[in-house]
Write a structure and sequence with these properties.
12 helices, 354 residues, alpha/beta, 8-stranded mixed β-sheet, 8 strands
């Protein structure tokens, strides 16, 4: 389903409201600073996180997708700025029937390939962290691997299943055009990208009725799901208990999931928690790593779906890091926070397989 709103374009009223929103966010920051010492056990574990998370939640609560997009440059611009920062020449590719774009990190001639599906609720482009963290995985010359970052179409322009078509096209391109063997391919998805990665995994074993099947000569080497968005249901207990410990804003989750699914029915490909018993058995992948933060609002559904997958597919590792927030390996760069156990676990898991 196509939409007609240009990226980041605001009406006069939206621009005026944007200014008011910024003022409200700044006021939230001041108030949070004054009240942080009294946050108690329900608040974030550090002053910096508590203040930063409250401001980010207010940002997502207060601003529309169009306003948020006006604040954030498109994915390709973020990629080019990151390439300039790190001193490498940016290189992008376009493939598939819907002209999907992706961006290279590392030596594209490396034997191993990491396909990265970035988060952002399908509504927002990748942040600098979406390039910084995967770059850390492949920047060393001794690492024989590269990253290809999917630049899927956001929901201001297209909705489900368009992004899943792009994910399948990316894997098809890696195997058929780049000549990569599936046993040398790892798929990584964070947040909404984890949702997309699970959709891809479902499609490989149970082809989506609207997408051409993809036959592979072998299993994928592996898949990593960082705080995957496994359910659009916001009634899970952790949405309440972790409200002040995380940066996820519930109204944004609702708005972004509705923009993604639109009039389509919830199914296994867009909502992994809908998978029946045995769905994940015999998946077309080697090892699977699923991580989450104990302080994130989505942790209950991440744990539930993770345990379901692990029961059906024993080569799955489910790792929950204490005192960590949603998608911390990637989003920590926004507030310049510590690396954390999820990031260290992911790096070790990847290193062991490359």
């Amino acid at each position: 389903m196509a939409h007609s709103v240009p990226y980041g374009q605001l009406s006069l009223m939206q621009k005026l409201d944007f200014v008011l929103a910024i003022i409200q966010i700044l006021i939230t920051g001041v108030y949070s600073t004054l009240t942080t010492p009294f946050r108690g056990e329900n608040g974030a574990p550090s002053f910096k996180k508590h203040i930063g998370f409250k401001m980010i939640r207010m940002l997502y609560r207060r601003m529309s997708v169009e306003q948020l997009q006006a604040m954030n440059p498109p994915s390709e611009d973020v990629y080019k700025a990151f390439a300039k920062e790190k001193g490498f020449k940016p290189e992008s590719v376009t493939f598939g029937d819907v002209h999907t774009k992706a961006h290279w990190l590392g030596n594209k001639n490396a034997e191993n390939l990491i396909l990265w599906f970035p988060g952002g609720g399908y509504a927002l482009p990748p942040t600098r962290g979406h390039y910084a963290f995967p770059y850390e995985l492949v920047e060393k010359k001794a690492t024989d691997a590269a990253v290809l970052m999917l630049d899927y179409t956001l929901t201001h322009a297209e909705s489900y299943p368009h992004q899943l078509i792009q994910a399948v096209d990316m894997l098809r391109y890696a195997i058929n055009s780049l000549g990569k063997h599936p046993s040398n391919i790892i798929v990584i998805g964070d947040s909404a990208g984890g949702n997309l990665a699970l959709g891809l995994l479902s499609h490989l074993s149970h082809p989506h009725p609207s997408i051409a099947p993809l036959e592979m000569p072998a299993l994928l080497k592996g898949m990593v799901l960082l705080s995957p968005w496994t359910s659009f249901d916001i009634s899970f207990n952790s949405y309440s208990t972790n409200e002040y410990k995380d940066l996820v804003e519930i109204s944004a989750v609702q708005a972004w999931s509705e923009a993604y699914v639109t009039s389509a029915a919830l199914d296994v490909y867009n909502s992994p928690d809908k998978a029946p018993v045995g769905w994940w058995a015999g998946m077309k992948v080697g090892d699977v790593l699923i991580t989450g933060g104990a302080d994130e609002r989505m942790i209950d559904t991440i744990r539930d779906v993770g345990e379901t997958i692990k029961a059906a597919y024993p080569r799955t590792t489910l790792f929950i890091a204490e005192k960590e927030f949603h998608d911390q390996p990637v989003l920590r760069y926004v507030l310049d926070l510590e690396e954390g156990e999820q990031a260290r676990m992911t790096k070790a898991w990847i290193k062991e397989r490359l």
